[in-house]
Amino acid sequence: MTYLTRRARRPFPWHIVVFLAPAVLIYTVVMIYPILASLWLSLQTRAADGPEHFAGLANYRRLLGSELYAQPLWNAVRNNVVFFAIHMLAQNPVGLLLAVLLSFRLRGSAVYRTLLFTPTVLSVVIIGFVWKLILNPAWGVQRGLLEPLGLQALDQPWLGLPGTALPTLGLISVWQNIGIPMLLFLAALVRIPDELYEAARLDGAGGWTIFRRIQLPLILPTVGIVSVLTFVGNFNAFDLIYSVQGALAGPNFASDILGTLFYRTFFGYQLQPGDEYMGAAVAGVMLTIILAGLLLYLVTVQRRLTEVEL
Amino acid sequence: MTAGGIAPVETTVAPVREKPIVGRGTQVLAHLGLILFTLLATLPTLLIIMNSFKTQLSIFGQPFALPTPETFTLEGYRTVATSANFPLFFLNSLLVTLGSLALILLCSSMAAFALSEYRFRLNTLTGLYLSIGIMVPIRLGTVGILNLMVDLHLVNTLWALILVYTAQGVPLAVFVLTSFMRGVPRDLKEAARIDGAGEYRIYGLILPLIRPALGAVTAISMIPIWNDLWFPLILAPGEKTKTIVLGASMFLGQFVNDYNAVLSALTLAIVPVVVLYVIFSRQLVSGITGGALK
Q1: With the CA atoms of B113, B117, B118 and B122 taken in that order, what torsion angle do they form, in degrees rounded to the nearest 10?
Q2: d(C-alpha B290, C-alpha B178), whole Å
Q3: Number of Cβ pairs closer than 8 Å across A and B?
Q4: Taking CB atoms and an 8 Å cutoff, what residues of chain A touch B27?
Q5: Is the predicted ipTM greater than 0.90, yes or no?
C-alpha cells in the first residue's frame, strides 16, 4: 500500500521541459535577448578609441535634441504618421468594403478573393519595381492609359516630387497589403449567424442596412485588431521605401520613415558612418512608439469592447 | 491578445452557400465593384509578365499590346539565364524557407502540445511570454541580432537567417497550434495513455490530427520569410548567401536599362510564389484568420 502511494507521487515532469525548450530557447536567444541587448546598447557609448561605457540617456538626448539627429528623426516620425494615416484611411475602409462585398456570397467569391490577395504574396522588391515602371514617364504606360481617358494632367513624376512621393508610396503599400484586412474582416463576417440575415431580409433590408445594422457592429473587435496590426506594421516598415527610393528615402528625405532612418543610422550612408549605439537608440524610440500604441489600444479600445460584450 | 479563451478556428472561410444575402440590384453592383478591384490588383502584374515576352521596341511602343508573332522574344530570359546567379539565389531562398519552416513547425508544435495538454505552474506565463513576439517586431532587435550572429560566427551563413525566421515565426505558430490542439478530443489521448503510450508517442499521434493547422501555419509563415529583404541585407549580403529577393533587388539596379531582362527576371520571381499561393491559398486564408483572431 505504501509502495503504491509513493509510486503515485509524480516525478518531475521532464517531458514538459523537453517539449517547451526548443521554442522558448530559440525565441529567447534570437528575439527577446537581442531586443533587450539592443536597448542596453542604446544606453552605452564609446569615444573614438576608448572602451564602451555606460552613458545613461545621452544617446536619446542626442537623438531628440541635437541638430544632426533630431531633424531627421522628427521628419521620419511625421512621415510615418502620414504613412499610417494613409493606410487607415485607404487600406482598411476599402479592405472592409471588399470583405463586405465578398460576404454577400456572390457567385465566384472565392476567385475574387484569391485574385485580390495576389499582390500581398509578391515580394516587395517586385511590387516596388512594377510601380516604379508603371509610374515612370518614359515607359508610356501612363500616357497610353491617361491620354485616351483625357487625364493627361495626372501624368506626373509622382515618385520624384517631394510633395507626392510619400502618399504615392503609401498607396502602393495599400495596393499590396489590402488583402490582409480584407481576409480578417471576411473571417469575422462569415461567423455572423444566418438567422440575422434572414430576419433582415424578411424586414426588406438592403445591402447598406445589413452592413450598418448587422455586419459593422458585430465585427468591431476585428476593426480594432486590424488597426493595431496596421500600426505595428507601418511603424516598422522599411522594405518598400528602400526598394523604391533606396536608403536615402528620397527625394530629399521626403519619404523617410523610422525603418529607413534606423537602417541609415545603424549602417551609415554616404559621408555619415554607421553608429550602432545611435542605431540602437533609434530602435529604442521605435519600440517605445509601438509599445505606446499597443498600450493605448489595450486600455481604451480593447477594454471598451469587452465591456460592450458583457 | 490574451492567452485564455481561444476557440478552435474552423479551417474554411466563406464557404460558398447557395443563396446570396442581398437583392439582385446590390448583387450586380457588388460584382462590378469586385471586378474593378480585381483588375486593379492583377493588371500591373500581368503587364509585367506580358511585356517580358516582347521585344524592347514594343515594350515601349505598345505596353498594353499582347505579344504577337512579330514582337515575341525570349531574349530577356536568355540574358537572365546567362548573367546572374539566379539558380544559386533561388536555392538559398529555398533552403532558408524550408529550414525555417521545418524548425518552426517542430518547435511550435511541441510547445503548443505542452501548453494545451498539461497543467503546470508556468503554463499561462509561458504562453504570454511567447505571445509578446506576435506584436513586437523582431526587427527592433536587429542591432543585438547582428552582434549575436557576429559572436556566433554565423554572419553570411544561411543559418543566421534560419534562426531569425524561426524566432520570428514561433510566437504566432504556437498561438495558432495551441488553439487547434485544444480542439483534439481528450478521450483520444487518455485512451492512448491507458494503452501505455508515453507522452512523446502521444505527441506523435496528435500531429497527423492537426494537419490542417500545420498547413495553415506553413502558409502564413512561408510568405514573409520568402519575401523578406531586411535580414538578408543585414545578416547575409555575401554573394554566396544572397536570397532571391536580395539578388533580384541588386539585379534590378544593375540591369535597369535592359527592360527585357528586368521584366523576365521579375516574371521568374513572380511565377513560383503565385503558383505556391494558388496551391496553399485555402490554408493561407485559414492561417491568417485563425492566427489573428481570438
Answers
A1: 50
A2: 11
A3: 287
A4: 104, 106
A5: no
